[in-house]
Amino acid sequence: MGLVQWLKGQFLCHLVICYGFFVSGLLINLLQICTLPLWPINKQLARRINCKLGYSLTSQSVALLEWWSGTEVTLYTDPENYQLYGKENAIVVLNHNFEIDFLCGWTFCERFGVLGASKCLAKKELSYLPVIGWMWYFLEMVFIKRKWEEDKSNFVQSLQNLRDYPENFWFLLHCEGTRFTEEKHRVSMEVAEKKSLPKLKHHLLPRTKGFWVAVQNLRGTVAAVYCCTLNFRNNETPTLWGVLNGEKYHPDLYVRRIPLESIPEDEAECSAWLHKLYQEKDKFQEDYSQTGCFPGPKVTPPRRPWALINWLGWTCLLLYPLCLLLVQLVNSGSILTIMATVAFCAAGGCYWNI
Ligand SMILES: CC/C=C\C/C=C\C/C=C\C/C=C\C/C=C\C/C=C\CCC(=O)SCCNC(=O)CCNC(=O)[C@H](O)C(C)(C)COP(=O)(O)OP(=O)(O)OC[C@H]1O[C@@H](n2cnc3c(N)ncnc32)[C@H](O)[C@@H]1OP(=O)(O)O
Ligand SMILES: CCCCCCCCCCCCCCCC(=O)OC[C@@H](O)COP(=O)(O)O
């Protein structure tokens, strides 16, 4: 293991990264609160400012994936459609098998310039996450409790609000509704059997209502559905912890662009259409497990420097007061305080590395 790789695994590096992320996040949340008085006066400007602020936070995790761990996602897609990515609004349908699937999505958002405005249909609990959840509130993320009667009106209203969104956005929908596990797969295949639907091997049975409501309410706003199928080479099981430790992963993403007009309007037909889409996605995953690749030409959109510049900027800005504090601590001459600080860091390091 080289020195750089060793350093990436050290507690002190992790401490600096997490400190930068959370403190910059809190400052960004504060700036977002400051935009509140602007909303009734100039809503579109307030939204644009929030997109930039959102970018400044989200891109730090993208920088961690792209620059710290060196992970490059390979895209399999039609070159004609490639020209359109980032230039139109889209609903993204993505499988939900991996701990870092959202990060792989974000890296594409970054490369196609829609990271600040990217959105998701997320469970309500995520809106309470400090920093990230609070930021999403200002980015008009759509949250659901997964109790349809309670969600219905808020869900529709949140989608309608996006009709005049001033920046291009991608709206991520994990139609499976939860991350894949063997147990959830077994239960959902029982449902498939009851409904006389073909069994899926690599996916849970998709929940269809959210997709139908999103498509219906975003007609005229969104140009296409991007059907995205993600997998990792060599049966890798990527984790956020691995990314933080600088581990490099090898994701492949297959993207098909489906014009929104081609999706049926009727609920039952739309639902059948989505089930068919998942049967196709399942076939792609099965082929991937046999051949190690998806259909179509490969391309790796170029990495842009902005995520790194933003990350380094925040780190320098926030390390400065931390260093001042440490200098003051040493100058204070209090052996007890110095020893308590060293003991805290050592204990943190031991705990972190267990
Ligand atoms: C080039 C481009 C490349 C890449 C870009 C990729 C991505 C980047 C884009 C954006 C990124 C932005 C942000 C992302 C960042 C972080 C967020 C990450 C993750 C968040 C993840 C989540 O929070 S997932 C959880 C929340 N989401 C969902 O739940 C969505 C899916 N669910 C739905 O849509 C549901 O329909 C619903 C919740 C809206 C409503 O559900 P409900 O159950 O009430 O209704 P349904 O009709 O859907 O289902 C009822 C029927 O289902 C049957 N049933 C029962 N049990 C099961 C089962 N186990 N499996 C399947 N079906 C089941 C039941 O029988 C009912 O059938 P009926 O016939 O009786 O209707
Ligand atoms: C530079 C520092 C980088 C630190 C990176 C931190 C980034 C944090 C981003 C948090 C994004 C959280 C996304 C979580 C995805 C998720 O939680 O999905 C939930 C679904 O499965 C449904 O769950 P379930 O309740 O099990 O059905």
TrEMBL record:
<dbReference type="InterPro" id="IPR032098">
    <property type="entry name" value="Acyltransf_C"/>
</dbReference>
<keyword id="KW-0812">Transmembrane</keyword>
<protein>
    <recommendedName>
        <fullName>1-acyl-sn-glycerol-3-phosphate acyltransferase delta</fullName>
        <ecNumber>2.3.1.51</ecNumber>
    </recommendedName>
</protein>
<feature type="domain" description="Phospholipid/glycerol acyltransferase">
    <location>
        <begin position="90"/>
        <end position="212"/>
    </location>
</feature>
<feature type="transmembrane region" description="Helical">
    <location>
        <begin position="333"/>
        <end position="352"/>
    </location>
</feature>
<keyword id="KW-0012">Acyltransferase</keyword>
<dbReference type="GO" id="GO:0008654">
    <property type="term" value="P:phospholipid biosynthetic process"/>
</dbReference>
<keyword id="KW-1133">Transmembrane helix</keyword>
<dbReference type="Pfam" id="PF16076">
    <property type="entry name" value="Acyltransf_C"/>
</dbReference>
<dbReference type="GO" id="GO:0005789">
    <property type="term" value="C:endoplasmic reticulum membrane"/>
</dbReference>
<keyword id="KW-0594">Phospholipid biosynthesis</keyword>
<dbReference type="GO" id="GO:0003841">
    <property type="term" value="F:1-acylglycerol-3-phosphate O-acyltransferase activity"/>
</dbReference>
<keyword id="KW-0808">Transferase</keyword>
<keyword id="KW-0443">Lipid metabolism</keyword>
<keyword id="KW-0444">Lipid biosynthesis</keyword>
<dbReference type="Pfam" id="PF01553">
    <property type="entry name" value="Acyltransferase"/>
</dbReference>
<comment type="function">
    <text>Converts 1-acyl-sn-glycerol-3-phosphate (lysophosphatidic acid or LPA) into 1,2-diacyl-sn-glycerol-3-phosphate (phosphatidic acid or PA) by incorporating an acyl moiety at the sn-2 position of the glycerol backbone. Exhibits high acyl-CoA specificity for polyunsaturated fatty acyl-CoA, especially docosahexaenoyl-CoA (22:6-CoA, DHA-CoA).</text>
</comment>
<feature type="transmembrane region" description="Helical">
    <location>
        <begin position="12"/>
        <end position="39"/>
    </location>
</feature>
<dbReference type="GO" id="GO:0005741">
    <property type="term" value="C:mitochondrial outer membrane"/>
</dbReference>
<keyword id="KW-0256">Endoplasmic reticulum</keyword>
<comment type="pathway">
    <text>Lipid metabolism.</text>
</comment>
<dbReference type="InterPro" id="IPR002123">
    <property type="entry name" value="Plipid/glycerol_acylTrfase"/>
</dbReference>
<keyword id="KW-1208">Phospholipid metabolism</keyword>
<comment type="similarity">
    <text>Belongs to the 1-acyl-sn-glycerol-3-phosphate acyltransferase family.</text>
</comment>
<feature type="transmembrane region" description="Helical">
    <location>
        <begin position="308"/>
        <end position="327"/>
    </location>
</feature>
<keyword id="KW-0472">Membrane</keyword>
<comment type="pathway">
    <text>Phospholipid metabolism; CDP-diacylglycerol biosynthesis; CDP-diacylglycerol from sn-glycerol 3-phosphate: step 2/3.</text>
</comment>
